[in-house]
Design goal:
This protein is of the alpha/beta class. 65% of the residues lie in helices and 11% in strands. It has two domains: 310 residues, ABC transporter transmembrane region fold, CATH 1.20.1560.10; 244 residues, Rossmann fold (3-Layer(aba) Sandwich). Helix 6 runs antiparallel to helix 9.
Length: 572
């Protein structure tokens, strides 16, 4: 939790004033038993009605002032807790954005979602409760004990014994529940992951009639979380009954001691009532303290998980150089995924001149996406180097890579808003003309105009567009910023052959002629490229033009003739 306190810096005033006003409220509350004592000993003892009315008025005044102090304290505590959680959530989101694909793959999206929602909310509640009660409850407990000593030293020893025993109980339960709440949050992560997978793949689940199996799997995960939660709750539930039992035993001892002292004339009846009220205040505050400890225990467990997430460092460290030109060269490059064992690709060497079209083809799992993902440094090389414009990509700044490289990933992702807002996602200053030209190049202009132009709304995830339309919009978004290097990672798979061909021709005719990498399993998409790199099991098994590879590369020949059977028969 200490490392997270830096996000409280802007709320130091609220963190100080909140507890101060809570302590002020406690002071007024500690005065109440003394007022009651005076009413009993002086007002009732002397049948002085005027004195009783005056003291009752004083109690009302103390209550009003205490309530005002409480409201002010609540305001400051809530402001600090909400501001702290907002900064923490923002820091987590920014940290996630700074991590490379390797760290994100290891963490998983469900983990990050749980950290930014459930965990942060628990920490926020813990901070709020802590600021409201950490000064009040101890102040009331020890203040009541001190006030008891001013009334009767012998009776006050009962307070001392009760507080010591209660402290042992409270901190023992706290020590037991912290690790249990950590387990609960881990089970929650698994449940969130399963929920996310099922909601994302609901069509597949229904198409394959897997509803019952998925419900059983979810039930297993949910029951595991329930058992962990019940175990933590059972331990925490001991807090209230043990607290009540100890305090009530202390009250019995106190009343017995008080009765003996009154009978002996050592203290008055008002003193006994005051001592009883102080013990009751301790009981109430310890119940609040017990709830505070349960909440803070959860918060500490969640804070520890958030700290661990923020401590994860990106494996990608950027330089500060700029890119000059779009030449790309792979020099004996290998890449191994984190915890992946063997290399995903090995010994990749080829070059692409500025403006050239490079096709990358191969079977499923051959390493095509891995190769192009190393250009924008989504993943780093394990061995060898990748250069752009003659400079190692590890020496180039992050902003420069983002500006000069356009990537259209396999999965088409659009964001809620308008088409224009999506087009400006990578180029905020793009003009309407720039967007229109990009849409025309991506073969998306016609259907965008049919929908009312670039002001048309895009639903979350682009659900109101077909697969092919989403792919073309994503390609247009990458083209808007006019990159020096453009990567189409199997991003035309939903396009028909004619649209695919028109798209490639339009990109070739662009005035700034980016170096184009086309990743595909369709031979038709790469056969007209200046160079075709053929991958098989992570190795480069062929490099050249279409007609050259048909003669020299068995893997390429198999892929091509499996898609163009008539031509194969004609050759025979």
């Amino acid at each position: 939790m200490k490392k997270l306190l830096r996000y409280m810096k802007g709320y130091r005033t609220q963190c100080i004033l909140g507890p101060i006003f809570k302590a002020l409220e406690a002071v007024f509350e500690l005065c109440i038993p003394l007022v009651v004592k005076s009413i009993i000993d002086v007002g009732i003892g002397n049948a002085d009605k005027a004195y009783i009315v005056k003291m009752c008025g004083l109690m009302v005044l103390l209550g009003v002032v205490g309530l005002s102090s409480t409201l002010v304290a609540q305001f400051f505590a809530a402001r600090a807790a909400c501001g702290f959680s907002a900064r923490l959530r923002s820091a987590l989101f920014g940290h996630a954005a700074s991590l490379s694909y390797s760290e994100l793959d290891t963490l998983g999206s469900s983990t990050m979602i749980t950290r930014m929602t459930s965990d942060v909310n628990q920490v926020q509640n813990g901070v709020n409760m802590f600021l409201r009660l950490f000064s009040r409850s101890p102040f009331i407990v020890f203040g009541s004990m001190i006030m008891a000593f001013t009334i009767d030293t012998q009776a006050a020893l009962v307070f001392v014994a009760a507080i010591v025993v209660l402290s042992i109980v409270v901190f023992s339960i706290m020590a037991l529940t912290v690790p249990l709440h950590k387990k609960v949050q881990k089970h929650l992560e698994k449940t969130v992951l399963l929920t996310r997978e099922n909601l994302a793949g609901v069509r597949v689940v229904r198409a394959l009639s897997r509803e019952n199996e998925e419900e059983e799997t979810y039930g297993t995960f949910n029951n595991a979380m329930t058992r962990a939660l019940n175990k933590a709750a059972r331990v925490a539930s001991l807090m209230n009954p043990l607290t009540y039992a100890i305090v009530n035993i202390a009250i019995i001892a106190l009343i017995y001691r008080g009765a003996v002292s009154v009978n002996s004339g050592l203290i008055t009846q008002g003193d006994v009532v005051a001592l009883y009220n102080y013990m009751s205040q301790i009981l109430i505050e310890l119940v609040k303290l017990a709830n505070l400890i349960v909440t803070v225990t959860k918060a500490l467990a969640c804070a520890s998980r958030i700290e661990n997430t923020l401590e994860i460092k990106s494996s990608v460290i950027y330089g500060n150089e700029t890119i000059d030109g779009g030449e790309v060269e792979f020099k004996n490059v290998s890449c191994r995924y984190k915890n992946g064992g063997e290399n995903a690709v090995s010994g990749i060497s080829f070059s692409a001149k500025s403006g050239e079209v490079i096709g990358i083809i191969g079977g499923t799992g051959s390493g095509k996406s891995t190769v192009v993902n190393m250009i924008p440094r989504f993943y780093d090389t394990s061995e060898g180097s990748v250069t752009i414009g003659g400079k190692d990509i590890k020496s180039i700044s992050k902003d420069e890579l983002c500006e000069k490289i356009g990537v259209v990933p396999q999965k088409s992702v659009l964001f809620r808003g308008t088409i224009a807002e999506n087009m400006r996602f990578g180029a905020p200053n793009a003009t309407d003309e720039d967007i229109a030209n990009a849409l025309k190049t991506a073969q998306a202009y016609d259907f965008v105009e049919e929908r009312g132009g670039t002001s048309a709304e895009v639903e979350a995830g682009g659900k109101n567009f077909s697969g092919g339309q989403k792919q073309r919009l994503c390609i247009a978004r990458a083209l808007v910023k006019k990159p020096d290097v453009l990567i189409l990672d199997d991003s035309t798979s939903a396009l028909d052959f004619a649209t695919d061909a028109n798209l490639r021709m339009a990109i070739r005719n662009l005035s700034h002629r980016p170096t184009l990498f086309i990743v595909s399993q369709r031979a038709a998409s790469v056969m007209h490229a200046d160079k075709i790199a053929v991958l098989d099991r992570g190795e480069l098994v062929g490099l050249g033009k279409h007609h050259e590879l048909l003669e020299t590369c068995e893997v390429y020949r198999e892929i091509y003739y499996s898609q163009f059977r008539k031509e194969k028969e004609a050759v025979k």
